[in-house]
Amino acid sequence: MSATEHFDTIAIGGGQAGLATGYYLKQQARDFVILDAHARVGDAWRSRWDSLRLFTPAPFDGLVGMPFPAGDRFPTKDAMADYLETYAAHFHLPVRTGVRVDCLRRQGERFVVMAGLGRYETENVVVAMANYQQPHLPAFAAELDPAIVQLHSSAYRNPSQLREGGVLIVGAGNSGAEIAMEVVRTHPTWLAGRDVGHIPVNIESEVAPLVVRPLFRIFFHHIFTVDTPIGRRIRQQFHSGGDPLIRVKPKDLTVAGVVRAPKVVGVQDGQLQLEDGRILEVANVIWCTGYEPGFSWIDLPVFGEGENLQEPLHTRGVVTSEPGLYFVGLEFLYAFSSAMVQGVSRDAEYIVQDIARRASEKAVRQAV
Question: What is the pTM assigned to this prediction?
Answer without folding.
Answer: 0.92
